[in-house]
What we know:
By secondary structure, the protein is of the alpha/beta class. Helices cover 40% and strands 11% of the residues.
Amino acid sequence: MVSRQLHIGTFLVGIHAGHWRDEETPPDAWANIQSFIRFAQIAERGKFDFGFIADSAYINKESAWALLSRLEPVTALSALATVTTHLGLAATVSTSYSNPFEVARQFASLDQISGGRAGWNVVTSALEGAARNFGGDKLHSHEKRYRIASEHVDVVKGLWQSWGDDAFVRNKKTGQYFDPDKLFTLNHSGEFFKVEGPLNIERSPQGHPVVFQAGASPAGKALAGRHADAIYAPSPDDVDKARADYAAWKQLAKDHGRNPDHLLVLPNFQPIVGDTREEAEAQYEKSNQFIDLDHSLRIISRYFNYFDFSTLPADEPFPDDILDKAKEGFISMAEKLVEGARRDGLSLGEAAIRHSRPSRSWVGSSVEIADKIQHLFETDVLDGFVITVSEENLSRFVDKVIPILQERGLFRKEYEHTTLRGHLNLPFPENTNVHQQQAAE
Protein backbone atom coordinates (compact mmCIF):
# COMPACT_ATOMS: atom_id res chain seq x y z
CA MET A 1 0.00 0.00 0.00
CA VAL A 2 1.19 3.50 -0.80
CA SER A 3 1.04 6.13 1.95
CA ARG A 4 -0.64 8.71 -0.28
CA GLN A 5 -4.10 7.79 -1.54
CA LEU A 6 -6.69 9.28 -3.85
CA HIS A 7 -9.57 11.40 -2.59
CA ILE A 8 -12.79 10.95 -4.56
CA GLY A 9 -16.02 12.93 -4.56
CA THR A 10 -19.07 13.12 -6.77
CA PHE A 11 -21.69 15.69 -7.63
CA LEU A 12 -24.98 14.48 -6.19
CA VAL A 13 -27.34 14.80 -9.16
CA GLY A 14 -25.16 17.24 -11.14
CA ILE A 15 -26.06 19.01 -14.36
CA HIS A 16 -24.42 16.27 -16.46
CA ALA A 17 -26.02 13.52 -14.41
CA GLY A 18 -28.60 12.43 -16.97
CA HIS A 19 -31.26 14.17 -19.05
CA TRP A 20 -34.83 14.46 -17.81
CA ARG A 21 -36.11 12.86 -21.04
CA ASP A 22 -34.00 9.73 -20.44
CA GLU A 23 -36.20 6.85 -19.29
CA GLU A 24 -33.59 5.96 -16.65
CA THR A 25 -33.58 9.45 -15.12
CA PRO A 26 -36.46 10.74 -12.95
CA PRO A 27 -37.68 13.91 -14.68
CA ASP A 28 -37.75 15.74 -11.34
CA ALA A 29 -34.40 14.35 -10.11
CA TRP A 30 -33.00 17.72 -9.00
CA ALA A 31 -36.00 18.37 -6.74
CA ASN A 32 -36.52 14.76 -5.63
CA ILE A 33 -34.72 13.75 -2.43
CA GLN A 34 -34.94 10.08 -3.40
CA SER A 35 -32.60 10.77 -6.34
CA PHE A 36 -30.08 12.40 -4.03
CA ILE A 37 -30.36 9.48 -1.61
CA ARG A 38 -29.63 6.95 -4.36
CA PHE A 39 -26.59 8.93 -5.55
CA ALA A 40 -25.27 9.31 -1.99
CA GLN A 41 -25.69 5.64 -1.16
CA ILE A 42 -23.94 4.53 -4.37
CA ALA A 43 -21.06 6.88 -3.54
CA GLU A 44 -20.86 5.54 -0.01
CA ARG A 45 -20.85 1.97 -1.36
CA GLY A 46 -17.80 3.04 -3.38
CA LYS A 47 -16.14 4.47 -0.20
CA PHE A 48 -16.06 7.96 -1.72
CA ASP A 49 -14.78 10.79 0.46
CA PHE A 50 -17.76 13.06 -0.15
CA GLY A 51 -20.80 13.99 -2.21
CA PHE A 52 -21.32 17.58 -3.31
CA ILE A 53 -24.34 19.71 -4.20
CA ALA A 54 -23.78 22.89 -6.21
CA ASP A 55 -26.16 25.85 -6.10
CA SER A 56 -26.94 29.32 -7.39
CA ALA A 57 -29.44 32.00 -6.42
CA TYR A 58 -30.91 33.06 -9.76
CA ILE A 59 -32.79 31.53 -12.69
CA ASN A 60 -34.89 32.80 -15.56
CA LYS A 61 -36.62 31.34 -18.60
CA GLU A 62 -33.26 30.99 -20.39
CA SER A 63 -31.87 28.71 -17.66
CA ALA A 64 -30.98 25.10 -18.42
CA TRP A 65 -33.74 22.73 -17.29
CA ALA A 66 -31.55 21.18 -14.58
CA LEU A 67 -31.38 24.53 -12.76
CA LEU A 68 -35.05 25.44 -12.79
CA SER A 69 -36.19 23.41 -9.78
CA ARG A 70 -33.67 21.96 -7.34
CA LEU A 71 -33.40 21.47 -3.62
CA GLU A 72 -31.60 23.94 -1.39
CA PRO A 73 -28.34 22.07 -0.70
CA VAL A 74 -27.90 22.34 3.09
CA THR A 75 -31.49 21.19 3.58
CA ALA A 76 -30.94 18.26 1.21
CA LEU A 77 -27.66 17.27 2.87
CA SER A 78 -29.31 17.26 6.28
CA ALA A 79 -31.68 14.62 4.94
CA LEU A 80 -28.78 12.67 3.41
CA ALA A 81 -26.96 12.71 6.75
CA THR A 82 -29.67 10.47 8.18
CA VAL A 83 -29.37 7.79 5.47
CA THR A 84 -25.56 7.65 5.23
CA THR A 85 -22.92 6.93 7.84
CA HIS A 86 -19.54 7.90 6.39
CA LEU A 87 -19.93 9.92 3.18
CA GLY A 88 -18.82 13.55 3.49
CA LEU A 89 -21.55 16.07 2.64
CA ALA A 90 -20.49 19.34 0.96
CA ALA A 91 -22.62 22.20 -0.34
CA THR A 92 -22.26 25.54 -2.07
CA VAL A 93 -23.38 28.66 -0.21
CA SER A 94 -22.43 32.08 -1.57
CA THR A 95 -20.76 34.73 0.56
CA SER A 96 -22.18 37.58 -1.54
CA TYR A 97 -25.73 37.52 -0.24
CA SER A 98 -25.63 35.54 2.98
CA ASN A 99 -25.09 36.40 6.61
CA PRO A 100 -21.93 34.92 8.18
CA PHE A 101 -23.68 34.03 11.45
CA GLU A 102 -26.41 32.17 9.59
CA VAL A 103 -23.91 30.31 7.37
CA ALA A 104 -21.75 29.40 10.36
CA ARG A 105 -24.77 28.03 12.19
CA GLN A 106 -26.14 26.14 9.17
CA PHE A 107 -22.92 24.29 8.49
CA ALA A 108 -22.10 23.74 12.15
CA SER A 109 -25.56 22.20 12.52
CA LEU A 110 -25.03 19.98 9.47
CA ASP A 111 -21.68 18.99 10.97
CA GLN A 112 -23.40 17.95 14.21
CA ILE A 113 -26.24 16.13 12.44
CA SER A 114 -23.77 14.16 10.30
CA GLY A 115 -21.23 13.45 13.03
CA GLY A 116 -18.52 15.62 11.49
CA ARG A 117 -19.04 15.13 7.75
CA ALA A 118 -19.93 18.65 6.54
CA GLY A 119 -18.12 20.75 3.95
CA TRP A 120 -18.73 24.31 2.73
CA ASN A 121 -17.96 25.27 -0.86
CA VAL A 122 -17.24 29.00 -0.69
CA VAL A 123 -18.33 30.96 -3.77
CA THR A 124 -19.23 34.50 -4.71
CA SER A 125 -22.42 35.15 -6.67
CA ALA A 126 -21.61 35.78 -10.33
CA LEU A 127 -25.06 36.34 -11.84
CA GLU A 128 -26.52 39.83 -12.17
CA GLY A 129 -29.98 38.56 -11.23
CA ALA A 130 -28.79 37.24 -7.88
CA ALA A 131 -28.45 40.81 -6.61
CA ARG A 132 -32.08 41.50 -7.47
CA ASN A 133 -33.16 38.49 -5.41
CA PHE A 134 -31.48 39.93 -2.32
CA GLY A 135 -32.59 43.55 -2.38
CA GLY A 136 -29.90 44.94 -4.68
CA ASP A 137 -29.89 46.40 -8.17
CA LYS A 138 -26.61 45.16 -9.62
CA LEU A 139 -23.88 42.65 -8.91
CA HIS A 140 -20.92 43.80 -6.84
CA SER A 141 -17.69 44.16 -8.78
CA HIS A 142 -15.47 41.08 -8.87
CA GLU A 143 -12.92 42.78 -6.63
CA LYS A 144 -15.54 43.79 -4.05
CA ARG A 145 -17.16 40.35 -4.06
CA TYR A 146 -13.87 38.79 -3.04
CA ARG A 147 -13.23 41.40 -0.36
CA ILE A 148 -16.63 40.50 1.05
CA ALA A 149 -15.85 36.79 0.72
CA SER A 150 -12.55 37.08 2.54
CA GLU A 151 -14.12 38.86 5.51
CA HIS A 152 -17.15 36.54 5.42
CA VAL A 153 -14.99 33.41 5.73
CA ASP A 154 -12.93 35.02 8.49
CA VAL A 155 -16.13 35.64 10.46
CA VAL A 156 -17.54 32.16 9.86
CA LYS A 157 -14.30 30.51 10.93
CA GLY A 158 -14.14 32.78 13.96
CA LEU A 159 -17.67 31.79 14.97
CA TRP A 160 -16.77 28.12 14.56
CA GLN A 161 -14.20 28.72 17.32
CA SER A 162 -16.78 30.01 19.80
CA TRP A 163 -16.39 26.95 22.01
CA GLY A 164 -13.56 24.84 23.31
CA ASP A 165 -13.82 21.20 22.31
CA ASP A 166 -14.64 20.13 25.88
CA ALA A 167 -16.65 23.20 26.86
CA PHE A 168 -19.88 21.30 27.48
CA VAL A 169 -19.31 19.42 30.73
CA ARG A 170 -22.95 18.34 31.23
CA ASN A 171 -22.18 16.77 34.61
CA LYS A 172 -25.52 15.71 36.10
CA LYS A 173 -24.04 15.03 39.50
CA THR A 174 -22.41 18.42 39.99
CA GLY A 175 -24.98 20.36 38.00
CA GLN A 176 -22.33 21.97 35.77
CA TYR A 177 -23.60 22.24 32.20
CA PHE A 178 -20.68 24.06 30.59
CA ASP A 179 -17.34 25.66 31.37
CA PRO A 180 -17.77 29.44 30.88
CA ASP A 181 -14.01 29.86 30.48
CA LYS A 182 -14.25 27.91 27.23
CA LEU A 183 -16.83 30.17 25.62
CA PHE A 184 -15.35 32.88 23.38
CA THR A 185 -17.07 35.95 21.95
CA LEU A 186 -15.94 37.05 18.48
CA ASN A 187 -16.72 40.78 18.60
CA HIS A 188 -15.97 41.26 14.90
CA SER A 189 -16.35 44.71 13.36
CA GLY A 190 -15.09 44.96 9.79
CA GLU A 191 -15.68 46.63 6.43
CA PHE A 192 -18.81 44.62 5.61
CA PHE A 193 -19.89 42.74 8.73
CA LYS A 194 -20.42 43.42 12.40
CA VAL A 195 -20.91 40.20 14.36
CA GLU A 196 -20.70 39.84 18.12
CA GLY A 197 -21.14 36.09 18.58
CA PRO A 198 -20.65 33.59 20.07
CA LEU A 199 -22.19 30.85 17.91
CA ASN A 200 -24.91 28.92 19.72
CA ILE A 201 -23.76 25.43 18.76
CA GLU A 202 -20.79 23.41 19.97
CA ARG A 203 -17.88 22.07 17.94
CA SER A 204 -18.34 18.85 15.98
CA PRO A 205 -16.21 15.67 15.98
CA GLN A 206 -14.11 17.16 13.15
CA GLY A 207 -13.70 20.57 14.81
CA HIS A 208 -15.44 22.50 12.06
CA PRO A 209 -16.56 21.86 8.46
CA VAL A 210 -14.07 21.37 5.65
CA VAL A 211 -13.76 24.42 3.38
CA PHE A 212 -13.84 23.98 -0.41
CA GLN A 213 -13.26 26.68 -3.03
CA ALA A 214 -13.48 26.82 -6.82
CA GLY A 215 -12.50 30.35 -7.86
CA ALA A 216 -10.08 30.45 -10.80
CA SER A 217 -9.34 34.20 -10.76
CA PRO A 218 -6.34 35.64 -8.87
CA ALA A 219 -8.72 36.81 -6.11
CA GLY A 220 -10.33 33.38 -5.92
CA LYS A 221 -6.95 31.68 -5.73
CA ALA A 222 -5.84 34.06 -2.98
CA LEU A 223 -8.96 33.19 -0.98
CA ALA A 224 -8.26 29.48 -1.45
CA GLY A 225 -4.63 29.92 -0.45
CA ARG A 226 -5.70 31.42 2.87
CA HIS A 227 -8.71 29.33 3.72
CA ALA A 228 -9.45 26.30 1.54
CA ASP A 229 -8.82 22.72 2.53
CA ALA A 230 -9.60 21.58 -1.03
CA ILE A 231 -10.16 23.26 -4.38
CA TYR A 232 -12.25 22.20 -7.34
CA ALA A 233 -10.08 22.40 -10.46
CA PRO A 234 -10.89 22.06 -14.19
CA SER A 235 -10.65 18.69 -15.91
CA PRO A 236 -6.94 17.93 -16.60
CA ASP A 237 -7.38 17.54 -20.37
CA ASP A 238 -4.21 19.57 -20.94
CA VAL A 239 -1.95 17.53 -18.68
CA ASP A 240 1.08 19.84 -18.82
CA LYS A 241 -1.03 22.85 -17.85
CA ALA A 242 -2.78 20.88 -15.12
CA ARG A 243 0.58 19.80 -13.68
CA ALA A 244 1.80 23.40 -13.66
CA ASP A 245 -1.45 24.53 -12.03
CA TYR A 246 -1.08 21.80 -9.38
CA ALA A 247 2.41 23.04 -8.50
CA ALA A 248 1.12 26.62 -8.39
CA TRP A 249 -1.65 25.66 -5.95
CA LYS A 250 0.83 23.94 -3.66
CA GLN A 251 3.15 26.95 -3.79
CA LEU A 252 0.22 29.22 -2.97
CA ALA A 253 -0.40 27.22 0.21
CA LYS A 254 3.28 27.56 1.13
CA ASP A 255 3.12 31.31 0.48
CA HIS A 256 0.39 31.52 3.11
CA GLY A 257 2.49 29.58 5.61
CA ARG A 258 0.52 26.38 5.18
CA ASN A 259 1.43 22.76 4.62
CA PRO A 260 0.85 22.19 0.86
CA ASP A 261 -0.50 18.71 1.62
CA HIS A 262 -3.41 20.42 3.37
CA LEU A 263 -4.65 22.12 0.19
CA LEU A 264 -6.04 19.30 -1.94
CA VAL A 265 -6.41 19.75 -5.70
CA LEU A 266 -9.50 17.92 -6.97
CA PRO A 267 -10.28 18.32 -10.70
CA ASN A 268 -13.71 17.51 -12.10
CA PHE A 269 -14.30 15.08 -14.95
CA GLN A 270 -17.05 12.92 -16.37
CA PRO A 271 -15.93 9.29 -16.76
CA ILE A 272 -17.98 6.95 -18.93
CA VAL A 273 -16.88 3.40 -18.29
CA GLY A 274 -17.40 0.06 -20.00
CA ASP A 275 -15.89 -3.40 -19.84
CA THR A 276 -14.42 -2.52 -23.25
CA ARG A 277 -13.80 0.72 -25.08
CA GLU A 278 -16.57 -0.20 -27.51
CA GLU A 279 -19.04 -0.59 -24.66
CA ALA A 280 -17.91 2.75 -23.20
CA GLU A 281 -18.36 4.45 -26.57
CA ALA A 282 -21.90 3.09 -26.74
CA GLN A 283 -22.55 4.50 -23.25
CA TYR A 284 -21.13 7.84 -24.39
CA GLU A 285 -23.47 8.04 -27.37
CA LYS A 286 -26.38 7.10 -25.15
CA SER A 287 -25.51 9.86 -22.69
CA ASN A 288 -25.57 12.43 -25.51
CA GLN A 289 -28.83 11.39 -27.15
CA PHE A 290 -30.86 14.29 -25.78
CA ILE A 291 -28.24 17.03 -25.98
CA ASP A 292 -29.33 19.48 -28.68
CA LEU A 293 -28.46 23.03 -29.67
CA ASP A 294 -31.18 24.70 -27.60
CA HIS A 295 -30.15 22.79 -24.47
CA SER A 296 -26.48 23.58 -25.05
CA LEU A 297 -27.05 27.30 -25.61
CA ARG A 298 -29.01 27.47 -22.37
CA ILE A 299 -26.10 25.89 -20.47
CA ILE A 300 -23.49 28.34 -21.74
CA SER A 301 -25.86 31.30 -21.45
CA ARG A 302 -25.35 31.27 -17.68
CA TYR A 303 -21.65 32.11 -18.07
CA PHE A 304 -22.62 35.29 -19.95
CA ASN A 305 -25.21 36.60 -17.44
CA TYR A 306 -27.96 34.77 -19.32
CA PHE A 307 -27.36 36.43 -22.65
CA ASP A 308 -29.89 35.09 -25.18
CA PHE A 309 -27.70 33.24 -27.66
CA SER A 310 -30.70 32.40 -29.83
CA THR A 311 -30.39 35.96 -31.15
CA LEU A 312 -27.02 35.07 -32.76
CA PRO A 313 -26.29 32.83 -35.78
CA ALA A 314 -25.27 29.46 -34.34
CA ASP A 315 -23.20 28.58 -37.40
CA GLU A 316 -20.90 31.61 -37.03
CA PRO A 317 -18.07 32.24 -34.54
CA PHE A 318 -18.57 33.98 -31.18
CA PRO A 319 -18.77 37.76 -31.75
CA ASP A 320 -15.61 39.68 -30.91
CA ASP A 321 -17.30 41.49 -28.01
CA ILE A 322 -19.07 38.49 -26.49
CA LEU A 323 -16.89 38.45 -23.36
CA ASP A 324 -18.27 41.87 -22.45
CA LYS A 325 -21.48 40.00 -21.53
CA ALA A 326 -19.56 38.03 -18.91
CA LYS A 327 -17.96 40.97 -17.13
CA GLU A 328 -18.10 40.60 -13.35
CA GLY A 329 -19.72 37.18 -13.85
CA PHE A 330 -18.36 33.73 -14.74
CA ILE A 331 -15.51 35.35 -16.64
CA SER A 332 -13.04 32.46 -16.27
CA MET A 333 -15.55 29.94 -17.65
CA ALA A 334 -16.59 32.30 -20.44
CA GLU A 335 -12.98 32.98 -21.45
CA LYS A 336 -12.13 29.27 -21.51
CA LEU A 337 -15.17 28.52 -23.68
CA VAL A 338 -14.55 31.32 -26.19
CA GLU A 339 -10.78 30.82 -26.37
CA GLY A 340 -11.25 27.10 -26.98
CA ALA A 341 -13.78 27.76 -29.75
CA ARG A 342 -11.47 30.25 -31.48
CA ARG A 343 -8.47 27.97 -31.13
CA ASP A 344 -10.29 25.01 -32.67
CA GLY A 345 -12.23 26.97 -35.28
CA LEU A 346 -15.65 26.13 -33.83
CA SER A 347 -18.87 28.01 -34.42
CA LEU A 348 -20.97 29.24 -31.50
CA GLY A 349 -23.28 26.22 -31.82
CA GLU A 350 -20.44 23.70 -32.12
CA ALA A 351 -18.71 25.15 -29.06
CA ALA A 352 -21.92 25.05 -27.03
CA ILE A 353 -22.65 21.43 -27.92
CA ARG A 354 -19.07 20.37 -27.22
CA HIS A 355 -19.25 22.04 -23.81
CA SER A 356 -22.53 20.27 -23.00
CA ARG A 357 -21.19 16.82 -23.77
CA PRO A 358 -18.83 14.81 -21.58
CA SER A 359 -15.24 14.92 -22.82
CA ARG A 360 -14.21 11.93 -24.93
CA SER A 361 -10.90 11.91 -23.06
CA TRP A 362 -12.65 10.17 -20.14
CA VAL A 363 -14.43 7.50 -22.19
CA GLY A 364 -12.87 4.04 -21.97
CA SER A 365 -12.66 0.63 -20.40
CA SER A 366 -12.37 0.36 -16.63
CA VAL A 367 -8.66 -0.45 -16.94
CA GLU A 368 -8.04 2.51 -19.27
CA ILE A 369 -9.78 4.91 -16.90
CA ALA A 370 -7.94 3.50 -13.87
CA ASP A 371 -4.61 3.74 -15.73
CA LYS A 372 -5.23 7.39 -16.58
CA ILE A 373 -6.23 8.27 -13.01
CA GLN A 374 -3.15 6.52 -11.64
CA HIS A 375 -0.83 8.30 -14.08
CA LEU A 376 -2.25 11.74 -13.21
CA PHE A 377 -2.07 10.99 -9.50
CA GLU A 378 1.48 9.70 -9.55
CA THR A 379 2.80 12.54 -11.74
CA ASP A 380 1.55 15.37 -9.48
CA VAL A 381 -1.48 16.52 -11.46
CA LEU A 382 -4.11 15.89 -8.79
CA ASP A 383 -4.76 14.68 -5.24
CA GLY A 384 -8.06 13.15 -6.27
CA PHE A 385 -11.08 14.17 -8.30
CA VAL A 386 -14.79 14.92 -8.34
CA ILE A 387 -16.92 13.17 -10.95
CA THR A 388 -20.14 14.35 -12.57
CA VAL A 389 -22.07 11.42 -14.00
CA SER A 390 -25.50 9.88 -14.28
CA GLU A 391 -26.72 7.47 -11.63
CA GLU A 392 -26.07 4.57 -14.01
CA ASN A 393 -22.53 5.72 -14.76
CA LEU A 394 -21.82 6.34 -11.08
CA SER A 395 -22.71 2.71 -10.38
CA ARG A 396 -20.52 1.56 -13.28
CA PHE A 397 -17.59 3.61 -11.97
CA VAL A 398 -18.04 2.23 -8.45
CA ASP A 399 -18.36 -1.37 -9.66
CA LYS A 400 -15.66 -1.35 -12.35
CA VAL A 401 -13.03 1.32 -11.64
CA ILE A 402 -12.96 1.58 -7.84
CA PRO A 403 -11.95 -2.11 -7.36
CA ILE A 404 -8.98 -1.61 -9.70
CA LEU A 405 -7.83 1.49 -7.79
CA GLN A 406 -8.25 -0.42 -4.53
CA GLU A 407 -6.22 -3.40 -5.70
CA ARG A 408 -3.43 -1.06 -6.81
CA GLY A 409 -3.33 0.47 -3.33
CA LEU A 410 -4.48 3.86 -4.57
CA PHE A 411 -7.81 4.02 -2.76
CA ARG A 412 -9.28 2.74 0.49
CA LYS A 413 -11.10 -0.57 0.65
CA GLU A 414 -12.94 0.43 3.81
CA TYR A 415 -13.54 3.71 5.57
CA GLU A 416 -10.88 4.30 8.19
CA HIS A 417 -12.49 7.41 9.70
CA THR A 418 -15.97 8.72 10.41
CA THR A 419 -15.39 12.41 9.59
CA LEU A 420 -14.82 14.16 6.27
CA ARG A 421 -11.64 15.72 7.64
CA GLY A 422 -10.44 12.21 8.51
CA HIS A 423 -11.24 10.89 5.01
CA LEU A 424 -9.24 13.74 3.46
CA ASN A 425 -6.30 13.24 5.84
CA LEU A 426 -6.59 16.82 7.06
CA PRO A 427 -5.51 17.84 10.57
CA PHE A 428 -8.02 18.62 13.29
CA PRO A 429 -8.35 22.44 13.32
CA GLU A 430 -6.76 24.06 16.30
CA ASN A 431 -8.99 26.42 18.25
CA THR A 432 -6.80 29.49 18.41
CA ASN A 433 -8.91 30.98 21.22
CA VAL A 434 -8.10 28.04 23.47
CA HIS A 435 -4.45 28.15 22.44
CA GLN A 436 -4.17 31.87 23.28
CA GLN A 437 -5.95 31.36 26.58
CA GLN A 438 -3.58 28.55 27.56
CA ALA A 439 -0.57 30.67 26.56
CA ALA A 440 -1.82 33.53 28.71
CA GLU A 441 -2.25 31.23 31.67
